[in-house]
User: Fold this.
Amino acid sequence: MQKYLKSEEKGKPKVAIVRSVSEFVEFATWLGTDDNMIFRGQRKEKDWPLVPSIGRDADRSQFPWRERETFEEFKRESIPYIDLIPDNNWQWLAIAQYNRLPTRLLDWTKNPLAALWFAVRNPATNNQPGVVWAFHYEEAESVFNTADMDSPFSIKRTYVYFPEHVFPFIQAQSGVFTVHHGEGDNPVQFPPLEESTTDSDLLLTKIEIPADFFTTIRYHLFRVGVSPASLFPGLAGIVDKIRYDNMLCRDEKGLTNPST
Assistant:
């Protein structure tokens, strides 16, 4: 798949460029020769390092104590709105993350097309490309049974957490998390995954999607069933799907056939 590679450098993630759903599927399939591959879609204008949201806070000196304080407050106040009460802090973190509380979790998915949708779902800003990260994790880093795990706040390495389906979006999006460990006490620092992972050139790949191809890719994803309705089950997802089906995004105006 050398035709897609933009750069290869020892010790740094590979960078590739794709311009269609078919190219993306071909390249993603080539990357994942086994089942230990997860994907994350994000925008270039938000091309932050692979650091959880709590580590991207503008005033990081406010943590670490606020990390636990905000988390415990979420647990106390969210109980009336949760159908299934979590068994442990790993499950609580998954629910908190999906409800946009800053946590030490970073969103990934086992479904590469879901990651691609998150990268191109809105028109590009300043002609910036979308980005899909692909991470080939080690089996020893995966967590399936949280009952046997220590607290996520005391881990000494980054884990790949396959959460129990305690929130509807997890199942719909084939959701997975990386759970990051902090370094230092005042403040806690979360080292970027791409800088702290051994053999980053082998385990991490950054796939860029040029802004000019967002429209076509979004249309083709919609046609194969990847849309807000499939990724966000519920009325909000249905409404977003209907809006897309009946309106043109800003970057689609003037197009007579977005499939071309």
The beta strands are 5-9, 12-17, 37-43, 105-109, 130-136, 142-143, 159-161, 175-179, 204-209. The first strand starts at residue 5 and ends at 9. The CA atoms of residues 75 and 256 lie 49 Å apart.
